[in-house]
Amino acid sequence: MFARTKRLTLRPGWPEDAAALAQAIGHPQVVDKLARAPWPYALGDAERFLATRGDPTEPRFLVFESPTEAPRLVGGIGIQPGEQSGQYDLGYWFTPDTWGRGYATEAGRQVVEIARHALGLKRLHAFHFTDNPASGRVLVKLGFRPNGRVEQRQSLARGGTAQSVMLELDLEDGRSCEELLAA
Question: How many Cβ atoms are within 10 Å of 145's Cβ, its own excluded?
């Protein structure tokens, strides 16, 4: 599955993306805000990630700036199974030089629409570590609401757990797709 927004292209990762992925995500201030990324993040980590094929009902995308002469990998976003059966979580990251430009919100809107219209999901879950309030603001812009729970969540890069705010998004509110979607 591929998707486009005004400024971004979302597509599956390919083995030849490994060097660009390792460079884009390879910042301590990125991976310490993620649950599953190790630190340091090396080329082998990118190669292993890109070699795993996910379930088509659990899309994960690399995010590229576009249109540009040579599209540049700037982030990743996807939907993955949650901790409980039938639960799906939205997760994302972006390279530091793109922070504050609205890319996470733009890509997030597109993936929420994919969840709603292409996958037929009824609800999405997400979390952000409490020391990453900017991610919380993005999730609220996407329509997520805190569910009142604060939990300890694993962070591989931190080597332990960190306090996290849990959020949910009801996808059955009848909104229509705002961006061009291609499958």
Answer: 11
- Residue 55 has a pLDDT of 80
Q: Find residue 155's DSSP bridge partners.
A: 160
Half-sphere exposure of 32 (CA within 13 A, CB side): 8
Q: Is the dihedral of CA 26, 91, 58, 142 positive or negative?
A: negative
Q: What does pTM read for this prediction?
A: 0.91
**In this predicted model, what pLDDT tens digit does every residue of 62-102 receive, in sequence order?**
999 987 678 899 999 999 988 888 899 999 999 999 999 99
Are 78 and 10 in contact, with CB atoms under 8 Å apart? no
Instruction: Provide the token pair at 119.
Output: 């996958």
Q: Do the bridges between strand 88-94 and strand 60-65 make them parallel or antiparallel, or are there none, so unpaired?
A: unpaired
Q: What torsion, rounded to 10 degrees, do the Cα atoms 44, 48, 50, 54 define? A: -160
The string of DSSP codes covering 6-36 is: SSEEEE---GGGHHHHHHHH--HHHHTT-SS
For the beta carbon of residue 180, count every other beta carbon within 10 angstroms.
11
| Strand, helix or coil for residue 114 | helix
Structure tokens at 172: 């059955």
